[in-house]
User: Fold this.
Amino acid sequence: MKPCKTGKNQIIDIHIQNAIKKSDFTPFHIVLLSCLIEYIERYGYVVAFDADDFELTEFIFGEVKMDKYINNTSTAYVKENDKSNLNLWKIVDNRAKEYSIVITEYLQRTYFKGLDISGFQNSLDEIYANVADHSKSNGIAFSYINYDEGEEKIHFAACDLGLGIPTTLRAAIPEIESDELALRRSLDVGVSAKTNKHNMGFGLDNVLSNLKNGGMMRIVSNNALLFCQENKNNIRTFSLDFDFRGTLIYFDISIDSFEKDEEIEGDVYL
Assistant:
């Protein structure tokens, strides 16, 4: 995309037709759309967004509050209305750790009393740190989380329009021959991109440890897609015929994978 040379009056319309309903809009659609709009507006254009499905429009602007974040460097988080949705989070470098704490404390307090969700927090820590430390996305990065009480699953998505995992990892480890292999290597314990001294590895193995009882993780980055279900022994990668310049990671975690918190239980019986 070329920068807009006619000032802030040139509008780009994004219109979602009636075939797409609110029920079709998952967390990874939300973060993708957020990054796209932010990217367009960074080039000096104005985005006009609407959807034929009124509920979808109300959801995006009323619940998700997408318009509060776009091209606004001072806004990283807006308080949610719906307790099952934690809205968008613009992944700001110096607040990456903060949001994983906010999420886990909120979920612990609201839904998961007596359960140990520290492993889930570790997963978020790694994902946010990777975006902040490695992606070089210049603030075009968003995450979104939803807990579905009926499914008893947490749905999480994060997207950045940065270098992409394969590009970053292959710069540090030139012998990695393909983007598919790079995504596989990003799941290994201790693999390092060597771009930040306090976050030396991608650490996505922490996410894998939570993929039990039907849990799934998908990563799209550069020219590759990785799919993992339930454990590290069930990983598939695919080559893409397009270049996704950035990283999209989304996963579903069943609460059945959380164990009882012995420390909390002990306090109850004192």
About this structure: Residues 197-201, 264-270 have pLDDT under 50 and may be disordered. Strands lie at 11-16, 46-51, 85-90, 115-116, 141-148, 153-160, 216-229, 235-254, 259-260.
